[in-house]
Amino acid sequence: MINDLWYKNAVIYCLSVETFMDANGDGVGDFQGLMRRLDYLSGLGVTAIWLMPFQASPGRDDGYDVSDYYNVDPRYGSLGDFVEFTHGAKQRGIRVLIDLVINHTSKDHPWFQAARSDPRSPYRDWYVWSEKKPDNADQGMVFPGVQKTTWTYDDKAKAYYFHRFYDHQPDLNTSNPEVQAEILKIMGFWIQLGVSGFRMDATPFIIATKGADVTKPVEQFDMLRKFREFLQWRLGDSIILAEANILPKDNFEYFGDDGDRMQIMFNFQVNQALFYAFASADTRPLKKAMEATKPRPATAQWGLFLRNHDELDLGRLTEKQRGVVFAAFGPEKDMQLYDRGIRRRLAPMLGGDHRRIEMAYSLLFSLPGTPVIRYGDEIGMGDDLGLPERNCARTPMQWSSEPEGGFTKSEKPISPVIKDGPYGFQHVNVAEQRRDPNSLLNWTERMIRMRKEAPEIGWGDFSVIDTGNDGVLALRYERRGNSVLILHNLHARPTEVSFDPDIGEDGRLLIDIADGASSKADENGFHTVVLDAYGYRWYRVGGLDYLLRRTEI
């Protein structure tokens, strides 16, 4: 069982086939291009890839509008290309997770076309209909300011259909047992082709009851157990990584009291408090978020992230906290989105300051859970605010200073490569940073290796150590007789802190595994450490013979 919990000490890398590399020369990334970059990912040290949607789709929402769950979009290649990719990843010790987009389909999906064409169609009940427009049709939109309603009239069906997202994405009636059976079939299909699990998109909406008469949706948590049971029957160590922006009081409903539902969930609570800490140098809300999300089943895990392919959602912060984050990282209106978030990439949010970027990622790697990093962040890629909505942060990967950043030989990539300004591909690319020992890319590679060599973070229990300074976060992890202690200074100035590791005699010696600046305690057992502006320290507690002292249980 222990060996099956590979996700406990994983490093997950999120990418889109469309934006990673184009081998066919048509301006669109494809699986052949991705295959050619597997050695890069292996060298970076990632242990799993989260692949954004690549199934057949009209492409109105970056593939999140699926029109065929059992096929690859022809722009990216074929099912054969996909299997070659999963096989190549497996050879390099990299697992593959794919997006499972089952809350809705594209309106072009044959299921919906059959459903709207004939009220007696077996697919009619696979979607959610109403003869009259419900009174609450102007509520519950996922994209306020862009989306006007959640119910749209279909002329052919002569009825309204429900869509929590855009009107071209009709919701599946996931309460229907036939729909649930089809979802299991979809998962089984891709498991057979080499994937190790799924990132389940919009999980709370999938399990919620839907209908014109539903004013307060009820979450059907047993559905999550059904998904989990099926997957582990097909492949014992397969997982589901759930996207669920929920309150801490509901965590166990998704994990299951016995850890029998979702294996991993994204920790949105910590993510939002983290950006408030970056903006204010106040770690108190972050500490509260960490403590609130600390309880979880032994087999469950949090997925920690900085930025992803969506906007930075700040909806869980107080109005005052949200204002602080907006002022620091998204002060202009075109940097904001959906009245709740920021649509920028991490590097421009932090002003391109490598000290802050390194501190942010060092902190991510030291938080309790599994780190998830986004393609391009390892080189500090920027964004193109001239592109609509979230597309501004979904530009092609920048591989070199060659035309189109080495992404494609085509002069017209499907999404424009960033060419101008300090984040243009001429200045920010893999090739240049690979040759620079002090680059962000090489730093990230070293940090990933260091994180993988500290399994206490992924597996162990954490304690917050008092430093007497709200702008400095000190975390101590323990597991199997070993401990690590990690400090981060969120201040823009050097800071001195004194602290007691609170771990007995071993705590008198702290060995810095990042840069060698070790520390010995004074006669009272306290360490005094000076941290640079945005500085950090990773310490092994007691010495570097920890592997010899590690217990088997």
UniProtKB/TrEMBL annotation:
Gene3D superfamilies associated with the record: Glycosidases, Golgi alpha-mannosidase II, Oligo-1,6-glucosidase, Domain 2
Highest taxon of the lineage: Bacteria
Signal peptide (from-to): none
SMART domains in the cross-refs: Aamy
Residues in Glycosyl hydrolase family 13 catalytic domain copies: 14-418
Protein name: Alpha-amylase family protein
